Amino acid sequence: MTSILLYGANGRAGTQIRSEAARRGLQVIPASRTAPPQPGADVAIRTVYGPDYDAVYVAGTHRVLADLEQAAIPRLLVVGLASTLRAPDGTMLFESADFPEEWRPFSEARAAELDVLRSYAGPVDWAVCTPPMTLVADESAGYTYAELAKALLDEATTPHHHREQYALEP
Q: What is the dihedral of CA 119, 80, 87, 139, to 10 degrees?
């Protein structure tokens, strides 16, 4: 049985991950943002949001990687942000001139999170699973959190992506 250490277990994505994991018979261990993991797990999934961008996405990513190393958890899956995907010209989507200015700091923080992961040389294998821009709760309005949960758990149980960001198709 795959065991999953889940950061953000009570959020929109985390709730769907817990439900889908229960349906599949997978064990979910809620993780604390502030305390290192006590039990081991096969994989950690990180789906967190916080208004202190540096603490959550930069320092927080460094801390999570160190905690996973200490707990001997070999894999980390992170829910990414669509605006950090690359456009055909190589720039990230949030770097375009028409990207809403009020959303830019959040996207910059998530890009910095990717930089932390890409520069990481430790033993934890990681992947950033990036849903489409239209991630919603309502099935009639776009890509749902339930679909995201299924995709994350598919990757958790049968890894295909290693030390890379990948996009989910709408």
A: 170
pLDDT values of the chain reduced to their tens digit, one per residue, 170 residues: 689 999 999 999 999 999 999 999 999 999 987 777 888 899 999 999 888 998 999 999 999 999 999 999 999 999 999 999 999 999 999 999 999 999 999 999 999 999 999 999 999 999 999 999 888 777 767 799 999 999 999 999 999 999 999 999 88
| Cα angle, residue 98 at apex, residues 95 and 103 outer, rounded to 5° | 65
Amino acid letter for position 19: S
Burial 150-169 (b: 16+ CB within 10 A, else e): bbbbebbeeeeeeeebeebe
In the chain, what are the domains? 3-80+108-167 (3.40.50.720)
